[in-house]
Amino acid sequence: MQVVSCKNCGAKNRVDESKLEHSQAKCGQCGAKLDTVSAVNEPTTTTILVTDQNFATQVLQVQGVPVLLDCWAPWCGPCRIIAPVLDQLATEANGRYLIAKLNDDENQRTAVQFQVSSIPTMLIFKDGKLVDRMVGALPKQAIAARLAQAI
User: Fold this and answer.
1) Could you list the residue range(s) of the whole structural domain that residue 137 is in?
2) Per residue of the chain (151 residues), what is the pLDDT tens digit?
3) Residue 118: Cβ-neighbour burial (10 angstroms; 0-12, 13-18, 19+)
4) CATH assignment at residue 26
5) Of 6, 27, 71, 76, catalytic
6) pTM of the model
7) Together in a domain, 61 and 17
8) Residue-by-residue DSSP string for 124-148
9) Are strands 129-135 and 121-126 parallel, antiparallel or unpaired?
10) Domain check: are 115 and 93 in the same one?
11) Fewer beta carbons below 10 Å: N end or C end of the chain?
């Protein structure tokens, strides 16, 4: 996942690299096509993209470190508010935990399985088991404290 600034309106967008490669990425604010050249200059994050298909391998089969799964949607304002916080936490993880993102609209099977009824919902898994749940746009310190408890 990369953060790309829109040349049209200046909004920052989290974009899947595959959409950048195929020139399918559009700005969430104004709808303009995002330029892949601007993506090269933006910092990348170390978040894991999770889908219904890879959920088991990317989250449940991870052993030894907690995985925070952010259930979000592109239209969700609070999800957009905490996105940079989660990107910061991912950058600061140093192998102590993993940050993963699940687009709730595109991966409803996993969201239903874990009873995600409000977004953002952050689920913390450890050794394949759900150990904590947070709902809403919480401050960075609160999320970091819950991750620390799971370590």
Assistant:
1) 48-150
2) 667 777 767 677 777 666 665 666 788 778 888 765 444 334 444 788 999 999 999 999 999 999 999 999 999 999 999 999 999 999 888 888 999 999 999 999 999 999 999 999 999 999 999 999 999 999 999 999 999 999 8
3) exposed
4) 2.30.30
5) 76
6) 0.69
7) no
8) EEETTEEEEEEES---HHHHHHHHH
9) antiparallel
10) yes
11) C
Active site residue 6: no
Q: Are residues 19 and 67 in the same domain?
A: no
End-to-end distance of the chain based on CA atoms, in angstroms? 24
| Cα distance between residue 132 and residue 128, in whole Å | 12
Closest CA to 114 of 64, 67, 63, 47: 67
Q: Are residues 12 and 64 in the same domain?
A: no
Catalytic, out of 6, 27, 71, 79: 79
To the nearest 10°, the Cα dihedral for 48, 51, 52, 55?
A: -10
d(CA 12, CA 1): 12
Number of domains in the chain: 2
Contacts of 56 (CB under 8 A, 6+ apart): none
Known active-site residue 30: no
